[in-house]
Amino acid sequence: MTQNEQTVPEAAPVAAPSAEALAGAEPRAGELSEAAAAITRAYAFEGARIHLGALVEGEEPVAAAPVHLSLPMLNRHGLIAGATGTGKTKTLQVIAEQVAAAGTPVLVADMKGDLSGIAVPGGASDKLVARAAARGQDWVPRAGTTEFYTLGGQGTGVPIRTTVSDFGPVLLSKVLELNDTQESSLGLIFHYADSHGLGLLDLKDLRALIQFLTSDEGKGELKGIGGISAATAGVILRSLTAFEASGADVFFGEPAFDTQHLLRRASDGTGIISCLELPGVATRPQLFSTFMMWLLADLYQDLPEVGDADKPELVFFFDEAHLLFHGASKAFLEQVVQTVRLIRSKGVGIFFITQTPKDVPGDVLAQLGNRIQHALRAYTPDDAKALKATASTFPRSEYDLVEMIPALGTGEAIVTVMSEDGAPTPVAVTAIRAPESSMDPAPAEQMTRIVQASPLMAEYGEVVDRESAYEILAKRDAEAAGAAAEEAAAPAQAEQPAERDAPARRSSRSSAKDDKGLFDNPAVKSFLRSAGTVVGREITRSLFGTRRRRR
């Protein structure tokens, strides 16, 4: 069954306002209709909460009927979906800025560059203030404490890099678009490096190790665990070459980013908003999505179990989420499902932002307790099918969602969230509140000032390029060429005794080489300089194949 043919599980029914109540006469001034009162009770959580907006009755929002998200229940994950231009990004911004204000760090992936305004106070206008008031919002311009990041320093932000060893074979196989056989072979290569304490820092290290393990000298090293064929190694090497040519090699290396920085809070107790700026990698969407999963997997393996807390440790907003699942292998999807399911107990909430729930595999969709659905359009039979599938993911209600979802205006959404007792709330047609930070991208000059003032720039701003296999092998070749030139220039009479003694010297050298074994190979020696690994201690890996660091 293909992703587009998957069956989306139907949600369990919950109590909802009756059709008569929804269509009833307008209440007297100061009173709520039966439907609005029911929604108000359902979304009036006792703990900390995020204000989404106000219930829509008829065609107008009811300011006295607020719709909330429960902050402690954000670790039940969520989905923000809708067609392009319907307000998904602004809804993300509304939630993210309030989550940070409540003291929880936030990570947002800014694929198009239009979320950077979260670092800038919004601009007031009479229209904006009136619109906010109609949604029960006392609008005040404010900005979140924001840290900008980029992948490999491509753009404005603190560079995020990781080593090949930390990234691991599973995610790297997805980036390189390897098939199952090639992925298995790459796993053997990593296993060999891990078990021999050979740190892989950058792509040159990996290339050198592959070449060694397929050479006459090294190909016997993997025989005991199956080995790799020359053809498979050739495919992997060609994929690495194309990967490097795309400029992706800058994402691998040192200093490797510590994902614990994403859990910081500002001095006033608010959560820091980590905004990963990604316009520079828009032409490599698979790399972007895979790196985001590396961040998530790395956090998962390092965070302690916290269970249900008053607020999450981190809320992760995964924009353009369909890129993660496009072309993914069955094994990769199983690992995504497992991570989403288990990371809840680590206090991490994940929101997927995409156009339709059909972009998300059913097993993942089943883990998303908070749903915000903006308008979808049904211009084709496939669109109509997707619309019906989307409507089926919501709790049953008196609303005709198949008719209502296409009719939503910009900034309106169908909402159901996880209540504090673990049950979905009744469906509420909601007018989403306005962001209090800027809805326009931050000026480039201001972003540059924020980045330059970051204390992380001193740690991650400059690339560390330590000696690697590439340089060592080049040096060895240069030394061999120099020695050959010197020998050719030596006097003839000096060559004669040298020739007489040559067999003994060759025998001595051969014996010494046999004694030294594998670690006499310059390509292998270069890996031993890797920080964070110890020769003879096997690296352990997470369910995503990422390296478990010992802190």
From TrEMBL:
Domain of life of the source: Bacteria
Record-annotated membrane-spanning stretches: none
Pfam families reported in the protein's UniProt record: HerA_C
Biased composition range(s): Low complexity: 9-27, 484-496
Entry-linked InterPro entries: HerA_C, P-loop_NTPase, T4SS_component
Stretches the record annotates as Disordered: 1-27, 484-522
Domain Helicase HerA-like C-terminal, first and last residues per copy: 64-550
PANTHER family per the UniProt record, alphabetical: SLR6007 PROTEIN (PTHR30121:SF6), UNCHARACTERIZED PROTEIN YJGR-RELATED (PTHR30121)
UniProt-recorded name of the protein: Helicase HerA-like domain-containing protein
Organism for this UniProt entry: Brachybacterium hainanense
